[in-house]
Amino acid sequence: MRTSIAFPGAALVAVAAPLAVAAPLAVAGSLAxxxxxxxxxxxxxxxxxxxxxxxxxxxxxxxxxxARAGAVPGLxxxxxxxxxxxxxxxxxxxxxxxxxxxxxxxxxxxxxxxGLSRASGAxxxxxxxxxxxxxxxxxxxxxxxxxxxxxxxxxxxxxxVYALAQDGTARHRLVGLDPxxxxxxxxxxxxxxxxxxxxxxxxxxxxYGSGRIYVPFGGHDGDCGxxxxxxxxxxxxxxxxxxxxxxxALRMAGIWAPAGPVITASGDVYVGVGNGAAVGPPYDGSxxxxxxxxxxxxxxxxxxxxxxxxxxxxxxLGSASPALLPGGLMxxxxxxxxxxxxxxRHLGGVGGQIFSLPICPAWGGDAVSxxxxxxxxxxxxIAAVAVARGRARVLWxxxxxANGSPVVGGGAVWTLxxxxxxxxxVGQATGRVRHSIRLGSALPHFASPSLxxxxxxxxxxxxxxxVFGA
Length: 470
What we know:
Blueprint: E1 71-72, E2 81-88, E3 98-100, E4 103-107, E5 112-117, E6 123-128, E7 153-155, E8 160-167, E9 171-177, E10 184-189, E11 200-201, E12 207-209, E13 212-219, E14 230-235, E15 243-246, E16 262-263, E17 269-273, E18 288-292, E19 298-303, H1 307-313, E20 323-325, E21 329-333, E22 338-343, E23 349-350, E24 355-358, E25 367-369, E26 372-376, E27 382-388, E28 391-398, E29 407-409, E30 412-417, E31 422-427, E32 433-438, E33 450-452, E34 455-459, E35 463-469
Parallel strand pairs: 1-29, 19-23
Antiparallel strand pairs: 2-35, 3-4, 4-5, 5-6, 7-8, 8-9, 9-10, 11-13, 12-13, 13-14, 14-15, 16-17, 17-18, 18-19, 20-21, 21-22, 22-24, 25-26, 26-27, 27-28, 29-30, 30-31, 31-32, 33-34, 34-35
């Protein structure tokens, strides 16, 4: 990532359901009494019956599942929109809120994780897990302060919510929390494969798979310092061996897209990789879709034939994660605006796409429903792209003001104008706006809503807003 866009202002891994509440875990190396907290403590001791899963309620990771599809089947058709509740927290919520039964999980740039009542927004518990870094102490950047930027993840095996905090100048702290009480059950520092943690920023959503929590790293906005993009696989309990992959570039090639790693049912990991420093041969692994094994060994990759000029002009594929499609296909769209249709089990190397077409410069996370991909256009709007018979075409575009990452449910595509703080309900078949509502706050770059029954939850620069779709 050289710079982020400047805004003014398919077999899928199954989601755990219904959620059961974890018994306290005996985790080697965890802090039984929690971390030393700066004002963080459970506000209420909610009963363990709080996690009552309902149909279409849970949202346990970025865009619902490990494949990042972002589409919920069977939701009630939405109509007019109303603010159900709005909760101000101690900082901006850059990641998607998670929903586990009756508990909403939100993480802030003040390094605080909150458990909120899904019904009312009331604070059930809060937990400070690190010391956020002010902008003045960062090598470069655009988030002030820098705390928890990525979307946390729920692990159905341990029944914990994992969040990654920037802790001071050079520590990245991974914590596993009981979603009902906020108690810390797991705690480990995440190493930096490039050995330059001060220059590494963790923005991409965390992912769960194969008994690991996958943590992607890129650089700060501005691409300062000697960072190199990487993914770290942290064991979800105990002190098992940490695995990692570092892009074989001399510098940059960040793995920073907000959607984070895409995980298949077999446990394979796919990531979008940003521009590297190289602008000519030999090829350095940057500007790519990279396929990794569960142990993070590189299996294959795709890069555009134009990778060198893409690197020179900051027009790489690292601004969005690839979209998994039925039939072993994948669509990758980055900053250049070209969409590349790929075979996920044979990415083809440099220039190995099976089809390409102009779509739009994309930033954030796609949504996938059937064989249609809803691409977030950085210049505004959504492009609905249909894939069939090894080809792709744009079905519709809109609405123009929206520049957030879309999700799908209730016959609608949901997207955001992050500058004006507006939520849009868009007809899935037509792209026409059905309803919209102002959320009362500006939104973080690349914001994306979470769907939970008839609620649409949005992280804002102030906290979380829950909208009711009647």
